[in-house]
Amino acid sequence: MMAYSSIIDWVTATWGTPLMERGFYPFDDYNLPYHISMALWNIIGGAIAWLINLLFPGNPVSEWLINPYTNEIFALVLFMVIIFAVAFIAVLISLWEERKVLGRAMDRRGTMIGMMGFLQCVADGLKTFMKDNVYSKKVDEMTYWWTASLVIGTSVLIDCMVPLSSRWFVVNYDAGLLIIMGLYALAPFFILVSGWAQNNKYSLIGGIRAAEMMISYEVPMLIIIASACLLAGSMNIGDIVNAQSEIWFMIPMFVGFVTFVMCATAEAERAPFDLAEAESELVEGWQTEYGGMKWGLIMLADYMRGSVSCGMIVLLFFGGWTIPFVSLDYFLGPDAVDNCLYWLPVPELIFLLKGWFAFFLMIIIRCGVGRVRTDTILNLGWKVFMPLSVLNLMIVLVLLVTGVY
Fold it and tell me: pTM for this one?
């Protein structure tokens, strides 16, 4: 048992061992958010252990709180909190960006509550949580609740799985893009079942529209993702980003870039592809019977899927967290931890800024293009974007075979 000493001794009890050499380090590479979470728990856990030991000298709880394995467990909990907090704040900024851009497009100032109008997003979220939990007695309750929970849960999961840099990730997996798209593809089925479970004709029509539209646009997206993987020679997200260190894939795959942006907009159910929630026709589409907190969380999930779409655009076409001909080895190099300012989130901010620019493109599409009919959307998916995605694949194959790229 550690003898009674100052709080500094309790906080720094495990600081002597390098992070990646401690008892159970869950990653193969250096992970910045995990490092931050470990430092936070050392401070929090050490302070709690010191206080308990001050009140009850010689107790085993204090020793347990600063045990290396206990540190790893609580650090993982804080790690997921940090990952979610950053993703959540990024989504709120995207929502604020959309309100401001749409306001200017309509010759007005947009939301003005709080710091440049940012607090309006927070106020709207709090307002939905304060509303009554009301729903129809005729719904299939189990399916009604579970499908909404799964739509929200999978949206949060895939948003957190998008890496912000080679040091800011949840899992460094080789088939990363396919795993993200696999989880992304679950949404149409949940939405369709949710629309059916509400026992409402408008909800059912909205669910059918959402499912058919998403499936129609997922196929071209997967073909374009396969093209990017061919061009990079790997399905690993880090390898795809590193392959764009000199030239972004947007240039050799410009056809795929335009097609992917439109398909990603449709996958996120954003205008002009928001027929599943067409207010003028279907009240609120498949979300009609969800109100209050449920509706607020579903809308948050919609914006998170939009954030994932923007993240995919950045990873595939904008070079991820890199800048052409600019070295970020000070932050991402093998010896970056030895630098005094290596923890500055420069690569992560580069990624987020690119993501907000991609979201700006989606907002411009919403401003400039009116809502189209269901049959037009399906024709675009199968008769226009599908051939364009195949054409993009053929261009990539020609570039690889001829040795141009």
Answer: 0.90
